[in-house]
Amino acid sequence: MTEAVRFGLVGYGSGGRLFHAPFLASAAGVAFAGVVTRSPERRAELPAGVPAFDTLADLAAAGVEAVTVSTPAATHAELAHEAIRLGLAVVVDKPFTLDAPAARAVTDAAADAGVPLSVYQNRRWDADFRTVRKLAGSGTLGEIRRFESRFERWAPDREPPAAGGGTLLDFGAHLVDQALLLCGPAERVYAEMHGRGERDDDVFVALRHRDGAESHLWGSWRQAAPGPRFRVTGTTGTYVVDGLDSQEAALKAGRTPAMLGERWGVEPEHAWGRLYRGATGAPVRSERGAWDLFYPAFAAAVRGQGPVPVDPHDSVRAMEILDAARTSAATGETVKL
User: Fold this and answer.
1) Which pLDDT score, from 0 to 100, does residue 20 have?
2) Strand partners, 144
3) Are residue 143 and residue 276 in the same domain, yes or no?
4) In whole angstroms, what is the distance from residue 129 CA to residue 229 CA?
5) What is the model's pLDDT at position 253?
6) Which residues pair with residue 194 across a beta bridge?
7) Strand arrangement of the beta sheet that strand 281-284 belongs to
8) Are residues 195 and 242 in the same domain?
9) Which residues of the chain have pLDDT under 50?
10) Where are the alpha helices (DSSP H) in the chain?
11) Which of 40, 68, 105, 277 is least surrounded by Cβ atoms within 10 Å, i.e. has the fewest?
């Protein structure tokens, strides 16, 4: 690209500060132009030289071309519509919206306005999931029959953060997105949900995919003995990996792609998964974790030089499954899509 895309960020809580700002600041083809936040505390945390704005309109008036919405989930749809009306290309953090009709309305509005729209499903670029996709694509696992995936934490004295909308929406947005990307469209949904406070804190979702594969997905803040991150079973082998991709931990420790360069997202050998064909497993080198690929790809899309990194219609379909999961959990019945 001949000119960097001037990019703004709405919200500077933990999501904006940790999961977006470091990538906007280092992405090729992006000029990080400012943050919308009225909080004095958040403004004090902004990197030197990054201006603060009171509103999206102020950001647009300053010449910004694209914006990321990283605010509480309940505000995503409203802010996305506002950005679209201003003619801004939009990235919406996950969960896209609170339900599928709202997600569909935002997607339709962006299409009608002719502005690029994407959803920040960054965990498509986790090291472990990229490894799963490579193994599946190469035929190493044979035909995938079951995909088991977990985001499980032990936080007995905490509720899930209110900004995420509950565990089904927050963790489930990633779990379902990965399942659909790996195994294709789903035709049936069964779910169980539990909660001790205002929000669900422990969920299980089972998907039956059209090709016959099954996905079993767990999300929990109450699991004292977390299971494997992935267990992917095919007709010729099973891949198992424990623990979470290291990119989130690196960001929380103050490390960024700009600091680490080619070392960003590289998993140590002890974190690699193993490929099993019976009782003995052989280690599989993890692919590089690559959250840093999202914003260069979106900037290229803004310039008309490629597709958006995550098609928003994918996230609409994921929201339909999350809606069905709520229905299933409430009724105890499997929901057909």
Assistant:
1) 97
2) 234
3) yes
4) 10
5) 96
6) 202
7) 281-284, 273-276, 238-241, 230-234, 144-152, 214-220, 202-209, 186-194, 335-336
8) yes
9) none
10) 14, 21-26, 40-45, 56-61, 76-85, 100-113, 127-138, 167-183, 247-252, 257-260, 294-302, 312-331
11) 40
Most distant CA pair in the chain: distance in Å? 62
What pLDDT is recorded for position 90? 98
Tokens of 252: 């929380």
Q: State the CATH number of the domain containing residue 176.
A: 3.30.360.10
Give a yes or no: residue 155 inside a domain: yes
Direct distance between the N- and C-terminal alpha carbons of the chain, in angstroms, rounded to an integer: 42
Residues listed for the chain:
337
Looking at residue 138, its amino acid is S
Whether residue 59 sits in one domain with residue 173 = no
Distance CA 45, CA 64 (A): 21
CB neighbour list of residue 34: distance below 8 Å, 6 or more residues apart:
8, 9, 50, 51, 52, 53, 59, 62, 64
Contact 151, 297 (CB under 8 A): no
What range defines the domain where residue 75 resides?
5-122+294-307
Quote the CA–CA distance of 114 and 135 in Å, as a whole number. Answer: 37
Distances (CA, A) of 243 to 96, 138, 238, 290: 25, 24, 17, 17
Both 165 and 285 in one domain: the answer is: yes
The amino acid that residue 208 corresponds to is R
In the chain, the number of structural domains is 2
pTM beyond 0.90: yes
Q: How many angstroms from the chain centroid is the CA of residue 320?
A: 16
> Is 277 found in the same domain as 303?
no
Residue 161 inside a domain? The answer is yes
Residue 313 in any domain: the answer is no
Copy the structure tokens of residue 96: 């896209």
- 155 and 176 both lie in a single domain: yes
Look at residue 68 and give its three-state secondary structure: strand
Residue that is written with structure tokens 């299971």 in the block:
227
In a domain, 117, yes or no: yes
